[in-house]
Write a structure and sequence with these properties.
mainly alpha, two-stranded antiparallel ribbon, elongated
């Protein structure tokens, strides 16, 4: 049973990171962090984006937690949960890279899901990219995908209220 609490910490940290990612995407990337995030919403030819800097922020969070949990770094002041939280943040970063960059944006591999949750995830993210600029928008998470029907209705409402400018009729 010595593994149960660390496993719960890793899983809870991974789940919490979806909320952190959602909040930072909505309230940082689409606001004062737009200078880094903008190129993610615009066509470009480069392999890397300024937006990839946010991955470095996530890596720094994970490394910091590993350091806080490490007796080699912190000595007797080490906080043992830090290691497991750092592992959860790292795990989320791997899942994010595979799902968001790999599956949704096809930066690392080509696969188009024909159904199920992966298709819903791709649809939700495409609807997120249906707006022009940083205003408005839907589906700010990276692993959790709301129902595309609800997202389309929200985009329609935002367009009618003048909050969001759509690229074209949203597809999904």
């Amino acid at each position: 049973m010595d593994w149960l609490l660390p496993l719960l910490l890793v899983c809870a940290s991974m789940a919490a990171m979806e909320w952190v990612a959602w909040a930072s995407h909505k309230y940082v990337m689409h606001r004062f962090g737009w200078a880094w995030h903008r190129d993610h919403h615009e066509p470009h030819d480069g392999v890397l984006e300024k937006n990839d800097r946010f991955a470095l922020v996530g890596a720094a969070m994970s490394i910091s937690m590993f350091a806080v949990g490490s007796p080699w770094v912190m000595g007797e002041q080490a906080w043992w949960p830090g290691t497991w939280i750092g592992l959860g943040i790292l795990g989320y970063g791997i899942v994010y890279t595979l799902i968001h960059d790999g599956l949704v944006h096809q930066r690392w591999f080509r696969y188009v899901p024909r159904g199920g949750y992966l298709k819903r995830l791709v649809q939700a993210h495409r609807l997120h990219h249906a707006t022009i600029g940083k205003e408005g928008g839907v589906s700010f998470g990276f692993v959790w995908a709301p129902d595309p029907v609800r997202l389309k209705a929200e985009l329609k409402r935002q367009r009618e209220e003048g909050v969001a400018v759509l690229r074209e009729a949203p597809e999904a």
